Amino acid sequence: MILERIVLTNFRTYEKLDLEFGERANLILGSNASGKTNLAEAVYFLSLARSWRTLEEKNLIQFGKEEASIRAYVREGTLHREILIELTPQAKRVFLNGKPLRRLSELSRLTNVLLFSPEDVRLFEGPPAERRGFLDVSLSKRSNDYLALIGRQATLLKSRNALLKEGARDKALLDVLTDQLIDVEEPIVRYRTMYVASLNAVLPKVLGRLTGKTAPCSLVYRSFVKDDGRFKERAKKAYAESLEGDLMHKSTSVGTHREDFRMKLGDRDVAEFGSQGENRMAALALKLSPYFLIEEEEKKPICVLDDVTSELDVDNAGRLLAYLDELGQSFLTATDLSLQGASVYEVADHNAKRRN
């Protein structure tokens, strides 16, 4: 996929911005707080219609303005698309070639964007929710069925927790909700198991290219029960054993919403025994790995890396830049960066201009 042009209106600090991009690396350079990340955020917003920086979408609208918009021109092979996202404090509307998009879930297939942000350097050291979020977003882009499953799971979990808060006076209803949760969680576990196996097929090569070293590495997925042909039996037992505690804490303590995965370098858990540098490179390798699971060249994702080189030493940064130069379109923000053949944009006073 290639993002050919973007037009921002009242988005963050950009009152009006119209830029055309190169097909390979695009360097977005400027001092801190100049608006670099706001531009990267707009590119990422095209994939999921949500920000990685805020849950309050009204914050994306320039102060004092009533609405904002992102208009993008995207090419996939010989196909050309115009995507328009309009934001108001009350609503969000998405259009494809002038027609309303029925489902936001379709957006990631129209503009698939991979993101690495400064917060991601602590992906393996942070809470399990961040790692689950990576799995859910990545899988939802690949499968509408998975997206529907986690949506259904969230609805059932909310209902079960509400019943627990009431003391679960209706035991029959609690049992029904638990059984329905288990029915949804069984395919979720299978999707996650298969996806982690797919990542493990490419992860060692990606990490090796980024670090310049050959070392075994793998993700270890921790399902809340084994999927060994007796999933429902094991899951019912897990829910039954946790019921007393769930009633006490008024919350569901087991299930796919509590799962996690870890990364091993050799036989060591990178979060527990890895250096800061190893954790950074492991997280970066993981976030880039989905790129290689897409076989059709024209469908390869766009990569957005926000301030990534500031977290890397000179050697690792050099290898990353060389690696990205072999891939498709990418966007990198930095205060200062050089890459031969890259398109360069200078950001200052909340405006961006193309240098070359």
Walk me through this protein's architecture.
By secondary structure, this protein is an alpha/beta fold. It has 2 domains: 1-112 and 296-356, Rossmann fold; 125-293, Up-down Bundle (Glutathione S-transferase Yfyf (Class Pi), Chain A, domain 2), CATH 1.20.1050.90. The chain has helices at 36-48, 107-110, 128-142, 144-165, 171-211, 231-249, 270-273, 276-288, 314-326, and strands at 2-11, 14-20, 25-29, 68-76, 79-87, 92-96, 99-100, 113-116, 217-222, 260-265, 268-269, 302-306, 330-334, 343-348, 351-354. Strands 2-1-4-5-6-7 form a 6-stranded antiparallel beta sheet, covered by helices on one side. Helix 4 (144-165) crosses helix 5 (171-211), helix 5 (171-211) packs across helix 6 (231-249) and helix 5 (171-211) packs across helix 8 (276-288).
Secondary-structure map:
Layout: E1 2-11, E2 14-20, E3 25-29, H1 36-48, E4 68-76, E5 79-87, E6 92-96, E7 99-100, H2 107-110, E8 113-116, H3 128-142, H4 144-165, H5 171-211, E9 217-222, H6 231-249, E10 260-265, E11 268-269, H7 270-273, H8 276-288, E12 302-306, H9 314-326, E13 330-334, E14 343-348, E15 351-354
Parallel strand pairs: 3-13, 3-14, 8-12, 12-13
Antiparallel strand pairs: 1-2, 1-4, 4-5, 5-6, 6-7, 9-10, 10-11, 14-15
The sequence of SSEs as H and E is EEEHEEEEHEHHHEHEEHHEHEEE
- By CATH, the topology of the largest domain is Rossmann fold
The strand order across the widest sheet is 2-1-4-5-6-7
What top-tier CATH class of the largest domain fits best? Answer: Alpha Beta
The number of E-state strands comes to 15
